[in-house]
Design goal:
The complex is a heterodimer of chains A (502) and B (128).
Chain A (H helix, E strand, L loop, with lengths): L4 H9 L5 E3 L3 H16 L2 E3 L2 E4 L4 E5 L11 E4 L2 E3 L7 E5 L3 E2 L3 E5 H9 L4 E6 L10 E6 L6 E9 L6 E3 L6 E3 L2 E3 L5 E4 L22 E4 L2 E8 L12 E6 L8 E6 L3 E9 L1 E3 L3 H7 L7 E6 L9 E6 H5 L2 E4 L2 E7 L3 H16 L30 H4 L7 E2 L4 H11 L3 E5 L5 E6 H9 L7 H4 L13 H11 L3 E5 L5 E6 L4 H9 L1
Parallel strand pairs in A: 1-2, 13-23, 16-26, 27-28
Antiparallel strand pairs in A: 2-22, 3-21, 4-7, 4-12, 5-6, 5-10, 8-9, 10-11, 12-19, 14-15, 17-18, 17-21, 18-19, 20-21, 23-24, 25-26, 28-29, 30-31
Helix pairs in contact in A: 2-4, 8-9
Chain B lengths: L1 E7 L7 H9 L4 E7 L3 E7 L5 H10 L3 E4 L4 E3 L19 E3 L5 E3 L9 H5 L5 E3 L2
Antiparallel strand pairs in B: 1-3, 1-4, 2-3, 5-8, 6-7
Helix pairs in contact in B: 1-2
The chains are: A alpha+beta (502), B alpha+beta (128).
């Protein structure tokens, strides 16, 4: 069954559209079934309220007399980007004040303007024939600006990696304070109330769709920067009129040791046009998974300690390696709910009609990391490809002989299909011989949980695996799943050899 | 109950905590202490029923005693109930109620100040 957008908009105009917040949908669907719920629900409102660093606003200050082409612009000592037309500038939320530092940033300028406070504009120029003026200083209110248009390149993250710190010192990050020794877990996102998890195929969320943005009626421009919906990290680029925004849904913030950011209240209304959409909006916190990344590792690819659902994160306590660890959010679930409720009431009162995307967002896109120009050594460059192996059903004495002949301490164990199923070491064989055990074949004594690497893995990561698991060799498995070689601690020495030669 | 005790070397001649424990027989738990050459500040925990006695004994000995209640002060106009303060607190002072609103149990506070640093909205401060 389907329901047309026209019908939904007619109901909105007549003031009898049935609107529910996204957190209520699972209960309604459970009670009425999909068909029954489709008749009951016209619109599902979503909401999120959290730190969205990728936020800012374009402003047009109007021309002074004599006119100036502003080359550099500061608002309350926070620099705005002025490399655009004469009296336009873009102020970003994370830009810090040149006098106050991170305590006051672009986000605070936006909050001041929205709150009706005046801000101090300072601009300079080299002066041209058409724009002779070289400097200007003036106090302005939001209403003095021709335009103040918020444009957020990357908002409304579908979900976000939670953060933990396994090192021995506290870390001060954009994920807040991370206590040492895995002392806490910090997460962000409203889970089932967040916009994208309610429509991950982007059937109703896309370019031109009206949204709630910091109290104003805004719009989705399209795919956000760094969007990666193909692996569950979609983002949206959004816009709205700053002059219509309210401090209730826009707040400046500063993360100690990191910088300033803007808390943005954002809600997307989802017209329930068919059963598929309704089924998607019935998503629960239990269904939304994310990882807990170790921010103690100072690299791009932080190891994930464990997978976790938003339901677990919101419970306030989760289990990490057998210990209870407190969790807390950076985003406000109460305010997210407030956004969804406010959006609901605006639609119910006929103040906001809905539309479908004028251009669809591709749900399969995956963001790539920066193209590496610096060579980082890969496992394939130093691995040993002459590998001595053994089958799982061969006798232990055969294994002993092969270890001796092969002058190695590790024998990868294969099944008769040629797949890696285990590993035996000289230690395993000696132990089997020393203890008069019933063990006869390799299968009885091999280690079945094998830590492996791949030819394309960075040697640094493989080395970390050796260290972490306290082992001295890793079987290398290629993309077809076959054994391509072995990487032993001894092979790591080749790296230094190469370095000296170079 | 937590008591905040301040004293100066001039006013207080004897080891004040030992003196109070011996005189009252109350078990005092010292949670934080800053002792300078001329003055000191101690945060102690005592059973609720003994608080008045301990307080009186210490005041007789020349110390100033304040009952710790609202140790963490929240600026309601700045707080957005994000919860960034909750997991950094070693004493479970901060938590959410059923409506995801931040609640503060100031009596448990040991004035470590971790929540103040963690708050992105500059909404928390400690009782001076």
């Amino acid at each position: 069954m389907e329901k047309s957008l026209d019908l939904i908009n007619t109901r909105i105009r007549e003031g009898n559209a049935r609107v529910v917040t996204a957190d209520r949908v699972p209960g309604i669907v459970e009670e009425l079934g999909i068909k029954g719920a489709l008749e009951e629900v016209d619109v599902v409102t979503t909401g999120t309220f959290g730190a969205m660093c990728s936020s800012g606003a374009f402003m047009n200050f109007g021309h002074s007399d004599p006119p100036i082409r502003m080359e550099r612009v500061w608002i309350n000592d926070v620099e705005a980007y002025a490399g655009i037309a004469a009296v336009d500038a873009y102020i970003g939320a994370t830009q810090k004040s040149e006098t106050q530092g991170i305590k006051y940033g672009g986000a605070h300028v936006l909050e001041d303007l929205v709150s009706g406070n005046s801000v101090h504009l300072r601009a300079q120029s080299r002066g041209t024939d058409c724009y002779p003026r070289k400097t200007i200083e003036i106090d302005l209110l939001a209403e003095d600006l021709n335009q103040a248009v918020m444009v957020n390149p990357r908002n409304a993250y579908q979900r976000y990696m939670a953060a933990i710190n396994t090192t021995e010192r506290p870390l001060y990050t954009y994920m807040g304070t991370l206590l040492p020794n895995s002392g806490n877990v910090s997460y962000s996102g409203a889970g089932m109330l967040s916009p994208i998890p309610n429509d991950p195929e982007f059937r109703t969320i896309g370019s031109g769709v009206p949204i709630f943005l910091c109290g104003a009626e805004g719009m989705i421009i399209g795919e956000g920067t760094q969007a990666s919906p193909g692996n569950g990290f979609g983002t949206l680029m959004t816009t709205g009129n700053l002059k219509d925004m309210s401090k209730d849904f826009l707040r400046a913030a500063t993360f100690t040791g990191y910088g300033s950011t803007l808390y943005v209240g954002l809600g997307v209304p989802i017209p329930v046009i068919d059963e598929d959409i309704l089924r998607r909006t019935a998503i629960r916190d239990e269904d939304i998974m994310t990882g807990i990344a170790d921010y103690g590792v100072q690299g791009r690819d932080r190891p994930v300690i464990r997978e976790v659902s938003y339901a677990e994160l919101k419970s306030g306590m989760i289990d990490i390696g057998g210990e209870e660890v407190k969790t807390s959010s950076l985003s406000s679930y109460r305010k997210a709910k407030e956004v969804a409720c406010e959006l609901k009431s605006r639609i119910e009162n006929g103040r906001m009609e809905l539309s479908l995307p004028t251009r669809r967002i591709n749900p399969a896109v995956i963001a790539r990391p920066m193209r590496d120009t610096v060579h980082t050594p890969r496992v394939r460059e130093i691995m040993n490809t002459k590998v001595v192996t053994i089958y799982e059903d061969e006798e232990i004495s055969t294994a002993a002989k092969r270890l001796l002949r092969g002058e190695t301490n590790h024998l990868p164990v294969l099944n008769r299909e040629g797949k890696l199923v285990g590993i035996v070491t000289t230690f395993d064989v000696s132990k089997a011989v020393a203890t008069t055990d019933k063990a006869k074949i390799v299968l009885d004594i091999m280690t079945k949980k094998v830590v492996t690497t791949s030819p394309g893995e960075a040697v640094d990561i493989a080395a970390r695996k050796l260290e972490k698991h306290n082992i001295s060799a890793l079987p290398v498995i290629d993309s077809q799943g076959t054994l391509a070689g072995m990487l032993s601690a001894i092979d790591l020495g080749k790296l230094f050899e190469k370095r000296w030669k170079a | 109950m937590k008591l905040h005790v301040t004293f100066s070397r001039k006013g207080v001649k004897q080891p004040i905590i030992a003196h109070t424990i011996l005189k009252t027989g109350v078990l005092i738990n010292v949670e934080r202490a800053y002792i300078e050459s001329m003055e000191g500040e101690v945060l102690i925990e005592v059973p609720d029923k003994d608080a008045a006695l301990v307080s009186a004994t210490m005041q007789e000995a020349g110390a100033r005693v304040k009952v710790m209640e609202d140790s963490v002060i929240r600026d309601e106009s700045e707080c957005v109930d994000c919860g960034a303060c909750i997991s950094v607190c070693p004493q479970d002072v901060l938590s959410f109620d059923d409506n995801w609103r931040l609640v503060i149990d100031g009596e448990k506070c040991i004035l470590c100040g971790k929540c103040v640093i963690a708050c992105p909205h500059n909404a928390l401060s400690l009782l001076q």
